[in-house]
Amino acid sequence: MENPINIWLMRQAGRYLPEYREIRKEKKDFIDLCLSPEIAANISLQPIKRFDFDFIILFSDILVIPFALGQDVKFQEKVGPILGEIKTEIEKINLEESLKKLNPIYETVKIISKRKKEKKLIGFCGGPFTVLNYMIERGTSKSHNKIKSFIKSEKKRAEDLIDVITKASIIYLKEQIKHGADYIKIFDSWAGLLDNEEYDRFIIEPNKKISEAIKKFSSTTQQIFFPRGSSHNYIKFIDRVKPMILALDNNYPEDIYDISIRENIILQGNLNPQTLVEGGEKLIRETKEVLERFKKNKHIFNLSHGVLPQTPTANIQKVVEIVRNYNDTIKAR
Question: Model confidence over 229-288: pLDDT tens digits?
Fold first, then answer.
């Protein structure tokens, strides 16, 4: 019998769920919410109770790393994250001491681990370049001019900061694993901003360091890498980082299918989040197309990026039903 297709969705815990929005009415400060173990654990489990996904993902945010490194991080409704100045001596910071600020997140992982039953728990961090992007832009950006200029005009400083973020991320992920995470995921959401040597230095090298450090620390922990927007660089990423699981967006080389079989890589993806919002026949058709597209590969069904806030829960339920029915068809073969 073929392997059944597991399913979870990026950003499955959070903003589109009415039960989450009820919590947010009371808990206004987002970072404080991430550092509230019992509440964060309950939020992590909300989509499991509603949709019975195969994976739980820790409810947190990639910007807890800048927060731990001393940068002010706030979230403003309808604006997003707003970050303060980078701490001047950040390269000399005591990482072990600074990351103690994130102890409540490890407690969240521990709580979920005790309640997860047969589900698998995914811990995560941001890709170092993606985190640096937010730190330099001091929030979201459409042009990303500040980060592009920074890595060219202050390359040594950029490399030093990337190295600090990479080391902090490794410590952070190890602690999540210690407290019960079965998988870890590295969200390099802005990897597509770079190419050539800059891609090698700021995407490949940090992700490779994380991969090797985690494999050495816990060889049984599955690692998911998501270098979003990498396009033709996905092949290079596979060759250099050697991911166990590779999450794909909507644009990647056709060679990925054969390469992943040869290298025994699980592929994750890649329904368009906007299709999930629209629903209807288009959603049914494209969900089935994703399942067919990856049918020769080891595959985890997911999106090409996170669930959008306006997504109807009924559409998510429909996708889960389609995937479960597909698995029933596999069993019957």
Answer: 999 999 999 999 999 999 999 999 999 999 999 999 999 999 999 999 999 999 999 999
Domain count, the chain: 1
**Which helix (H) or strand (E) covers residue 46, if one does?**
helix 37-51
DSSP output for 189-234? TTGGG--HHHHIIIIIHHHHHHHHHHHHH-TTSEEEEE-TT-TTHH
pTM of the model: 0.96
Give me the residues paired with residue 121 across strands.
56
For residue 156, give the CATH number of its domain: 3.20.20.210
CB 242 within 8 A of CB 220: no
Domain that holds residue 25: 6-266
Q: For the residues of 79-105, what is the DSSP string, one character each?
A: TEEEE-PPPTTGGG--HHHHGGGGHHH
Q: What percent of the chain has pLDDT over 70?
A: 98
Inside any domain, residue 273: no
Cβ 61 vs Cβ 30: under 8 Å: yes
